[in-house]
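User: I'm curious whether this sequence folds into something compact or stays loose and floppy. Could you predict its structure so I can see for myself?
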Amino acid sequence: MEINKKGVSRMDDKGIVRIAIENIHQHPDNPRKDLGDLSELSESIKKKGVMQNLTVIPGHWDEKQEWHEEGYTLIIGHRRCSAAKMAGLKEVPCRIVDGMSKKDQVATMLEENMQRNDLTIWEQANGFQMMLDLGETEESIAEKTGFSRTTVKHRLNIAKLNPKVLQEKEKDECFQLSLKDLYELEKIPDVKTRNKILKEATSSNNLAQKARYAFAEIKRKEHEKAYIKICKKEGIEPAPEGAEGERYSNKWDIVKEFELDNEVQGKTGCKTRAEKEKLFYVVYWGRTFAIIKKKEKKKKELSESELKQKAQDKRKREIKAMQKIMSAERTDFVKLAIEQKFKPENEKPEAVMERLFNVLVECGSWMNEQVMMKFITGKTYISDQIEEEKAERKEYEKQRDKIGLLYKMMVYAVSGVADKDLAEWNATYRTSSGKTVMLLDEILALFGFSYSKEEFYKLAEGSHDLFKEG
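Assistant: Here's the prediction. I'll summarize afterward.
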C-alpha cells in the first residue's frame, strides 16, 4: 500500500489506519442528509478522541458526481468524521474496504443509520428507493437491512411523495409527522392526491383524517359507478343537470335511496317500476345515490304565505341534511382518534376533558349504554341473555372498556351535538345550538379535526346562505 500517497499515516496490527481528515469525503448517497447537532459528540472527541474507527472505500466523487481515484469516501461514521473535524483533529482511525459495490455501500449506510434511529422518515424512504434504483428488490432490501418486507414496501411508498413537502413537514415541530399517519395516506392510489393531502394537512392527525376522507370518497365513487351500471341495465336514466340541488324542491319525488358508504346492493329494486314510468338517478352530497321521479303538478296555486312556508321548509330540510353529514364526519374522526390514540395539540388532556364536560352540559346529554353501543357496533341493543348474542355482547364490552375516559366523553359529546338543530322554526340561525356545535368543533380541532367542506363551518357559525330568506 502506498501509505503517504494515499494520505495514510500508519497502520496497526488489526488493519486500522489513520487517515488525514482532509482526504476523507462524505458519501453523496448517504441516506442521512442532516447530521444533526454535533456539539456534544465533538466535545467528547476532544477529550477522548475517536473511540470507534470509521469505514471508508478508496476514491471519491466530487461535487459534479465525477469519480476520482484519490482520497477516500465514508461508508460508516459520517457524524464522527464531521465531529472530529469540528474538534480540530487532523486524522481519524479508519478501516479501508475494497471492492464494495454501490448497492452494498447504500445498504451498509442504511443499516448503520436505521438501526440507531438516525434517519428521518424521508431519509429512510429515500435510502430504500436508492437501493431499488440500483437493482435491489423488496425482498433483497429487507434481507440486507433487517427490516420486514412490509416495512420496506411502506417506505418505498413514502419515497413517492414530494420530498420537499415531506421534509418541510418533518422539520415542523408542530406537525409531529408519524409513520402511522403516512400509512393512512398510502391507501390513496393516486400520488398527486397524496401530495395534495400532505401539503394541505395542518398536523399529523389532520393528515390521517384527510387521508381517511379521501379514501372514503374513492370508495363512494366506486359504489356510485356500480349503481350507475345497475341503473343502465334497469332502464333508469341520469337525472337532468341541476337535479342534485333540487332535493327539497317540489320537482322530484324520491323513490329509493342508497348510502354510498355502504356496500352496493345487486339491484335497485326499481326495475319493474322503471318499465311503467320514467325514473332517474342522482347523487346528493356525494354520499347518497337516489332513484327519483318527477312530481305530478298540482293545479292548486299556492298563496304567498304558503310559498314562503314551503321555501322555509325546504331550507330547513337542506340544513338538516348538511348537519347529518357534519355529524357523520365528527363521528368518523372520533373513531379514528380512538383507533390511533390521537392526543390534543397544545393543551393538556385534563383541560380538554373540562371543555368536553361543558359541551355535554350544554347538550343535556344522556350518557347511557345505548349511545356507546351504537357508536361501537351500530346497534342500540345487544342482549347478554340470549345465547346467540352473548359473544357479540362480550366483544362490545371488551371494545368499550378499552376506550379511555377522554375519548368516551368525545363519543357522548358528538352524539349530543348531533341532536342540536341549527335552524329555528323559520329557518333562521339558532345561536345557542351553533355555539355548542362550534365549541365541540374547536375541541376536535385540537386533535386534528377539520370538515371536508368549508360551507359546513359557515353553517355552524350561522353565515350560510341557507339561513337567509329569498
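Summary: The chain is about 50% helix and 10% strand. Residues 14 and 270 are 84 Å apart (CA to CA).
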